[in-house]
Every structure is written in C-alpha cells, then in structure tokens.
Amino acid sequence: RHRPRATRSRLEYANALGAPHRRHSLLPEDVRTVAPPVPRHRLLLTAESGMEGLKADDVVQSVLGAVEVPR
C-alpha cells in the first residue's frame, strides 16, 4: 500500500521511540511526539493570528488534543 513519504517517515520515527523500551507497537504518546514537526511547515496562519502570538505548533497541539485516543 502506498503511503506518502511524510507518513512513512512519521511512522518510522514513532516506532523508533519505542525501541529503547523494547516496545514493538506504537503508543498514542509516540504519535503525539512526532506529529508537530510534520504539518508545522504547511500551516499558514493569518497576520492576525501572528499578532495574537498564535504559532503553528499551537494549532497542531489543539488538533491533537481534540482527537480522541482509541482504546
């Protein structure tokens, strides 16, 4: 199955976070750790947002916080 490079890289990075702990599966925390750098450069905030001090990482964290973690 074809996955975009960024998705593959993110999954590899998240898997690597578990390696020192001898985990062979992803945890939601792993995905949340690697998520911000990927979309950060693709977000274009309005000038008003910048003046209010809002940053791309704030938007990413807000989205991640709104996503329910599957159990």
Protein described:
With 71 residues, the protein is mostly helical. Helix content is 58%, strand content 0%. The protein is built from 5 helices and no strands. The chain has helices at 5-18, 28-34, 37-40, 47-51, 56-66. Helix 1 (5-18) packs across helix 2 (28-34). The radius of gyration is 15 Å and the shape is elongated. It starts with a helix and ends in a 5-residue tail after the last helix. 1% of the residues are buried.
Features:
single chain, 71 residues, mainly alpha
Task: Give the amount of beta strand, in percent.
Answer: under 5%
Tally of DSSP β-strands: 0
Mean pLDDT: 85
Estimate the global geometry from the Cα principal axes: elongated
> What separation lies between the terminal Cα atoms?
25 Å
Task: Give the radius of gyration.
Answer: 15 Å
Provide the low-confidence segments as ranges. none
Report the sheet with the most strands, covering strand number, pairing sense and barrel closure: none
Order of helices and strands: HHHHH
Overall structural class, as computed from helix and strand content, comes to: mainly alpha
Helix content: 55-70%
Number of helices: 5
State the gist of this model.
The chain has 71 residues and is mainly α. It has 5 helices and no strands.
What topology emerges from the helices and strands here?
Blueprint: H1 5-18, H2 28-34, H3 37-40, H4 47-51, H5 56-66
